[in-house]
Amino acid sequence: MNRREFSSLLPLLAAASSFAPANAQAPQNASSAAPHAPLEQLVSGRYPPIAPANPHAGPRQSQHYLLGLLPDNIRLEAHVTHLAPGCPPEPIGTHKHTEMWFIREGTARLMTAGVTRDLAAGEMGLCIAGDRHTIYNASQTEPCSYFVVTAGPPE
């Protein structure tokens, strides 16, 4: 992914707080895919949540907005994740895509390429494709939530 393609994703982060609520109507002028369905070509339009968040899913809950392909076979995903206080870290992993986290509430602890940083509400973290990373709630008493955008080749 080049700088121009990356910079075209930044408005998604700025718009994170304007996404439709969980009871929104079906997408208008847009297609969407379930998180594990075959990837479809994305089109310009409105993307409300694909499915409502499951309140019984456990300490880590995600609500997906889109997952599909941009032109030039670039995979794009957007979701919001809510972490309960003390939620365990996700496994350390690597991806072919670049991942961006915009912290909405609380404090997330992000490890990228061996460096750990705390991210407060309003801050953004970035993990370049191929770097080892993990993210988790830094607090044992307060919830944490973040908006995620990933972009890169299909995996």
What this model shows, in words?
With 155 residues, this protein is mostly beta strands. The chain has a single domain (1-15, 59-155), classed as Sandwich (Jelly Rolls), CATH 2.60.120.10. The protein has two helices and eight strands. A five-stranded antiparallel β-sheet has the order 1-2-8-3-6, with no helix packed on it. The longest helix is centred in the N-terminal third of the chain and has 5 residues, at 3-7. The model is unreliable at 10-35 (pLDDT under 50).
Secondary structure elements and their pairing?
Layout: H1 3-7, H2 10-14, E1 60-70, E2 74-83, E3 98-105, E4 107-112, E5 115-120, E6 124-127, E7 133-137, E8 144-152
Antiparallel strand pairs: 1-2, 2-8, 3-6, 3-8, 4-5, 4-7
According to CATH, what is the class? Answer: Mainly Beta
Percent of residues in helices: under 10%
Overall pLDDT confidence: 82
What structural class do helix, strand and pairing data support? mainly beta
CATH topology value: Jelly Rolls
Corresponding CATH architecture: Sandwich
Structural domains: how many: 1
- Which parts are unreliable, with pLDDT below 50 for 5 consecutive residues or more? 10-35
Could you give the order of the helices and strands?
A: HHEEEEEEEE
List the total number of helices. Answer: 2
Global geometry: globular
Oligomer description: single chain
Q: Please give the largest β-sheet.
A: 5 strands, antiparallel
Give the number of DSSP strands: 8
Strand order of the largest sheet: 1-2-8-3-6
Distance between the termini: 14 Å
Radius of gyration based on Cα positions:
15 Å
Strand content: 35-45%
CATH superfamily: Jelly Rolls
